[in-house]
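Allow me, if you will, to draw on your knowledge of protein folds for a short while. I have a record of one protein: its chain in single-letter code and its fold written as discrete structure tokens. Kindly check, if you would, that the fold set down in the tokens agrees with what the sequence suggests. Thank you for your consideration; the sequence and its tokens are set out here:
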Amino acid sequence: MLVPAFVLGPERRHARLTMEVEDSGGVVLTAYHSYARPQPPSSEPRCAPRAAASHPGSRKSIPRCRRINRMLSNESLQSPAFSRSNSQASVDSASMEDFWREIESAKESSMGALEEPTPAEAKPVDGRVLEGELEAEWLQDVGLSALISGDEEEDGKALLSTLTRTQAAAVKKRYNTYTQTMRKKNKHPVRDVRDIFGVSESPPGDTCDSHPSQSDDTREEKELPGIIKTGGSLSILETIPDTPVHSNGSADPGQSVQNAVSDDDYLEKNISSETEELSYEVSYSEMVTEAPKRNKLKKSDFKKEDYVLPKFIVQKTRFGLTEAGDLSAEDMKKIRHLSLIELTAFFDAFRIQLKRNKTEKVKGRDSGIFGVPLTVLLDSDRKKDPGVKVPLVLQKFFEKVEESGLESEGIFRLSGCTAKVKQYREELDAKFNADKFKWDKMCHREAAVMLKAFFRELPTSLFPVEYIPAFISLMERGPHIKVQFQALHLMVMALPDANRDTAQALMTFFNKVIANESKNRMSIWNISTIMAPNLFFSRSKHSDCEELVLANTAAHIIRLMLKYQEILWKVPAFLITQVRRMNEATMLLKKQLPSVKKLLRRKTIERGVTSPKTSKVLQKSPSTRRMSDVPEGVIRVHAPLLSKVSMAIQLNSQTTAKDILAKFHCENSHGSSEYIKIQNQRLYEIGGNIGQHCLDPDAYILDIYHANPQAEWVIKPQPSV
């Protein structure tokens, strides 16, 4: 259920909207909604300042809203977790009344939606057992189901072999909880954690997962392993290097992690509007644990002068930057697993538990448009367009608003014609998949209303609501926006493909709306506040005070997404490095299987070629052996769709991907059709220790060649979204 709530500062000039607030800072406007929260923080949740009087726009009876207003009027509460300056937060009375009407409309009419299914009640089981079940689900989500089943799975071993110290500690901590729970239930014997991670010599003081309230002080849970090398056994440990590990897998001996990220730059410096640099080369959780003053984090609120979001510049390495869609589906699956592990380790470093609610998952509808899971919609759309990544109906909603609604005042505040919206909804459900719906009769107002309803009626919210409580705790412990961005970055990378691609398209669309703020009066704050209850929702119930904080945080998260949309969907280089190592380890493990060894030996004898040394991580493929006459530093680039289909190119330290594309452009620019073809072409790195990688035009190819000498190089079109 959508419930609005507002906290108003002492702006006397709008008499109707004034609330008597003592020592209030600024104006806070937030959409109000029900959110899932596994456990409230140990401290009292922050609420809004004391306020009185209900808004004149809420003329109808809203019992829950009245309870909130009464709570805010009668209780002396702390200041909100974050506030805005008057210049940033001021809104006129008409805008606020529009917002109330929009919430009222969404609450009163679900536009023909099915009744909300209620979540399954948690069984009255022992909390320890429930915790163990959640940890088992976490292990499955990160691709380590083999630790539960006991199977000898190459992918699981390869994943374990690439973990950093903090990531391994996060896995170890969850596996310990799971094994202790299973022993208590006496279901089946489980492996000891030392059989997987071995025994580390790390001193207890170096741990990042020990918590003051931790009841289990066993030696194996406190000790942290280093990076686990795959060498026939998973218990061979090496100390993690104290230098940053770059995207090519090599360490920079000239600068340590501790020196690379100072405490002043990372945690305690006041936020300013000046440009700050971000690095994607070093694990975020390692940055936190290596910060020299990590134990001196202070709880502090957002200051008014700090609320302006800084501008971030990502340090572009010689490998360039990689979009989520630039990698193969199989490699992105590994990115998701690693991102969830890294996100958990990141929160562990701040002593924050990342847990999810144990609720029943809603299946959703199997056909139609509204209430249908994104994956089902995409499966249907791919029958028409195999490369589509965002549901076609959403793209149509975007197009209708962009055609004539970008300059329409209050485009996402308006409710549209209820009768028309209901009619269009029914027709879309019945006719869209058959391409029989007439889009020319729909106006931008109805398209905007149905866009919000589309996300509100998804079986599960677009963004996981279980992350919000952890995000609140993070803001309390480390208020710097850079810390919040890093957590959000990992959250985005951990999203399923359908959610991540849809979210990216949605933020791109909303930034187009915000670009016309002077005419449509839709600012970044308006959009984030209105859309928060539609993109983060849950059917669980909790206290009004908690929901108010959760709603504020959801709006803040969307604001971060809108502000940093250009860099938030770039894959961190350190995760790509781990994927390369995973692929190398998987190939090595497969070669160690007896059946594969026999097959390789037989093929080697048939070809009369001496078997390569087994100490090499990557064996040379037959295609590589056939190209052994190609000199070192020379690559052969294939362009099957162009008239010049192949070219050998000598690399030097300054050769970039766009240089190679330019060479093919010169060779294939004889006709207009060839010129058009080359404009959409990109250079791909395929095979070796990566599935497929669409390279940044500014990437230096010699560096990538050294990191993946077995790769093939292909020029082909970049797929559209």
Q: What stands out?
A: The chain has 30 helices and eleven strands. The two ends are 33 Å apart (CA to CA).
